[in-house]
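User: quick one
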Amino acid sequence: MPVTKWLVFIVALLVWAAYFYYMDQWIMATQGLPVGADMMPV
Amino acid sequence: MRIPVLLSLAIAAFALLAPDLVLAAGEEMATVLEGAPQPSRLDYPMIGGVSARTVAWSMAQMHLFLAAFVLAVPLFAIATELMGVITRDDRYDNMAREFMKITMAAYSLTALVGGGLLLSLLVFYPHLMGYMVKVFRGQMLIYAALFGLESITLYVYFYSWDALRRGNRKYYHMSIGLMLNTVGLTLMFIANAWVSFMMSPAGVDATTGAVTGTIWEATRNPLWNPLNLHRFLANIAYGGAIVGGYAAYMFLAEKDPAKKAHYDWMGYTSNFIAILGFIPLPFAGYWLMAEIYAYSQQMGITAMGGILAWLFIIQAVLIGTIMLAANYYLWSGLMRTDRGAQYAKYVKYIAVVIVGGFLVWVTPHTLILTADEIQRLGGTHHKILGPLGIMPAKNTAVNLMLVFTFMSFQLFYRSSRVPVVKWAKAGNMAVIALYAVGIANIVGAGIYGYITPTVYKVGASVPQVVSTLSIIIFAVIIDVFMLRGARSEKVHWGRMTERSQYALFVLPVAFTWLMGLMGYIRSSLRTNWHVYTIMKDNSPEAYIPSIGEAGNVITAITLGFMAIMVFVFWLSRLGATKQKGTS
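Assistant: Done. Structure below.
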């Protein structure tokens, strides 16, 4: 069980990371602020 | 039971007989395009040495406190009543009735202060009121009619509780409650239209203020909906906090363990309601502020770039107080269950985040300094703490505080349930991973705000909000499945320290003060205008009061309101007290 537990943890980390990554991209894009065109001088 | 049907028919008949009033449709333009009045200083009635603004301000603020309370309580009373129907547990029903009992005692006071507000406005600001009546015309009559309907539905809802308690009758009762809430919310939306019109007028000529549009155009002004959402959520949080104060009062006053247990449960539920309303509140406030900026940059800068910005520091102190009090109460609640102690070790970590977030939020960007201090500091911004004064840091802090407040709540409900599903450990790991990635995303978006232009900095606050809400929603969903069929541990309601109850007193006091302070900011944004850019305020008090003066007035109103609430609590207790020897 400990192995399964940590395996689930790693998979979950990847799944949540993908979720938050695409969520960020989508929200910024819907605001007309695509990530990638954002590194203008501050 | 035909009352709901009759009331619906009455509204329908009213709509048919006076469609212009109800729908604001087919309305003709004002025949004479007369501009907004421009009264001179001498046109404002002077009555002795009375400060017109302080009287109107006090009445408006007190009315808002009471109205927010009496509108919010029926909202969660009906939700609690529904819980009673779903769970078939009479405790919910009794609690919902008790919520309403407190409202009943406060309702007449709300109307009384509302009458006082109207009177003070008519006496001291007749030209403004004349103009407002011209803009909103029949809507003011609808408001009066709805107020009557609100009174009828409120009394019927409360007094029919026992008569309509079982079987199908319960649904009739809940229908009355639904109608009460519909009318109550409509009343609030109408009043919000008047207030927001004064900030962002619409449906009138932009230079003269002549009425050129319909009532609906004036109602649907740019700040109406942000204000509606903000006040709706704030009312829920506020109502929950006040009822929590009542429960704490009763908990401390009662000697009977069974009654103590009941009020402990009521206090817990009220705190839950207050947090539920509070979690999305900063986001609604953020939207309102963004809309204020979008409507008028000058107005936005007056709020957050000038002297009023210091009140946002006081706001941070008060919100930090609310967060700490709500969390402290939840941590104290861990002792209600035998398993609660095993979660106590996490409390210190949560406390570090809450206090840390509070300190970041309270850090000002620009300091008020003497020339000597500026020289020693090397500028107006502190080298290390200065960066914490801008919005990405504040947004990160508030989102983390909300995530960890939810975690405190999660610890409590998990302390009374032991999951029995096989995948419980894996489920826990998924939840831990959710927290880890979600928090990293909130912090990352905050850092991103420092390295990108302002427009991206503002835009990045939205993913932060969605991250917070995602953590809460996904954690709840996983818990719902994981705790299905869970072994319940006994919750010893009433097994709480007396000092924990004082946290429940802190909440309504901090909320009341906060609402007063923020109301002062919102109202001050109009600067020397009754109706922004349309109708100038030429009265002797047409200036933004100093923070010190405003602080005194708001504190006096807060103390007055608290005195009223103590009276209301005492009255509710008195109503349930029987003289010895009577049955």
